[in-house]
Amino acid sequence: MSSSSSVKLHLWWRILVILEFLVVQGLGLNTDGILLLSFKQSVLSDPLNVLQSWNYRGQTPCSWNGVTCGAPSNSNNDYSRVTSLSLPNCQLLGSIPSGLGMIQYLENLDLSNNSLNGSLPFSIFNATQLRFLDLSNNLISGGIPETVGQLRNLQFLNLSDNALAGTLPATLTTIQNLTVVSLKNNYFSGNLPTGFQSVQVLDLSSNLVDGSLPPNFGGNNLRYLNVSYNRLSGVIPPQFAEKIPGNATIDLSFNNLTGEIPDSIVFKNQDSKSFSGNPDLCGEVTRRDCPIPSSLSSPPNVSSPTSPPAIAAIPKTMDSDTPEPSPGAKKSGQSKLKPGTIVGIIVGDIAGIGFVIMVFFLVYKLKRKKRVETTLKQEANTVKDNWSITSSSSESRGFTRWSCLRKRGEYGEESDTHYFQNTQGLIFVVDSNDRERISEARDELHRMLSEDELRDATLLVFANKQDLPNAMSVSEITDKLGLHSLRQRRWYIQATCATAGQGLYEGLDWLSSNISSKAR
């Protein structure tokens, strides 16, 4: 009795425990909550504790911070499901898991202004109910797949200020409900997509988009178009703006566009700054007369350079008695450079000259001491002794040397004005993680730009340390440095991570290209 009874009692006890476990599981967190917890698990740092309330207790996540639930509009179910996840400006560090794209009725996803990295999971582009997607100002890399066209309900897409690359998917133009697209400050390349019909706001500025403007661009409903700071080239086809409303705002500045601006209402309604940075554009809007056909040919005895000129960044010229290089040392068609300028070159012609790179850090304040003259002469001699600039057909790209490093507080209170002589391009490196001294960097930058020797210099700003979680975004640095106030100067800001080499080639390509077009 006692032995058999104890066995039966133990068996029934185990059965009750199992039944209780099954009941708890049945009343536990639903699928939406479990998928949301996969995001919490992918977050490495949550300094504001915005995810503290996220746990397995309860049946639904509807009371969690940043989560909104509602009855799905296209479902017969009365119970609430997750329809929105909004956690902007929360300083979250981590990645985006594929689970977020599996939330069946998710309509709104806003994780902007955080430090999320990694690539976009493909499941995001299968969330067919998604209407609002904002992942701007993060560290997201990778590309946008063609499956983005499956987001038929998408109305708002903002992936700006990230590290996305690749070509712009053609299916982006097939989303009929899409009205706002912002992909600025990334690394997208390739041609500009065609067939935009429903989009009202399109911002593709500060990318690497190249090719020509397509005649069949579309833009029937456009109110704002910004493709500035790209690599678009060629003439503007008259058909490009054919369907764009006359009251729309268009920005084509800082590309490589050429020729006369078409006689279109929408172009006539733009300010001249919308076309600035395209030195070969002409027409009434630019206030630059187009040349008559007879003036298109090159004047006699003037050779047109076949490759971009090098960038002078060691401004102290050598003595005038430096021997001239022999004519045979150059390819035919190259423009002649003075001996002092040749010694002062730090970036060679990327396509045609041996790639000799010594990025010159002009950072914050230069301190003056007695050894400044000696140091400058030593550096000039080092450049002269170690590097010879020769012609080459090599297409290789790479860094061969870093030189002329200056850190704040090294040499005297002010820099010598002769240090900037013969400078065509100015590279200014700013620490994206140094918020305390960004104002000092701004003051030093504008002080240098006020020098007469630098009045025509093209400016490239390297926003370094973009890999750090708390680094300022490119757009934030642009505002803090006051770059938009440089109306009469060519400038560009490039997100970089010097330790990984990210962004350096792109920035130097832009600088070489713009100095080349400026010299023509």
Please describe the structure with a list of short key phrases separated by commas or semicolons.
520 residues, alpha/beta, Leucine-rich repeat, LRR (right-handed beta-alpha superhelix), Rossmann fold, nine-stranded mixed beta sheet, six-stranded parallel beta sheet, 8 helices, lipoprotein
Give a brief outline of the structure.
The protein has helices spanning about 1-25, 30-40, 265-270, 340-345, 370-385, 440-450, 475-480, 505-520; strands at about 45, 65-70, 80-85, 95, 110, 115-120, 130-135, 140, 155-160, 165, 180, 185-190, 200-205, 210, 225, 230-235, 250, 255-260, 280, 310, 345, 425-430, 460-465, 490-495.
Determine the mean pLDDT: 75
Identify the CATH homologous superfamily of the largest domain. Answer: Ribonuclease Inhibitor
Strand content: 15-25%
Shape, principal axes of CA atoms: globular
Characterize the biggest β-sheet. Answer: 9 strands, mixed
**Number of DSSP strand runs:** 24
Helix/strand-derived class? alpha/beta
What's the structural domain tally? 2
CATH architecture verdict of the largest domain: Alpha-Beta Horseshoe
CATH fold assignment of the largest domain = Leucine-rich repeat, LRR (right-handed beta-alpha superhelix)
Distance between the termini: 107 Å
Counted by DSSP, the helix tally is 8
Residue windows where pLDDT falls under 50 for at least 5 positions: 17-27, 294-377, 383-416
Instruction: Specify Rg, calculated over alpha carbons.
Output: 29 Å
Report helical residue fraction. 10-25%
Q: What would CATH call the class of the largest domain?
A: Alpha Beta
Strands side by side in the biggest sheet = 2-3-5-7-9-11-13-15-17
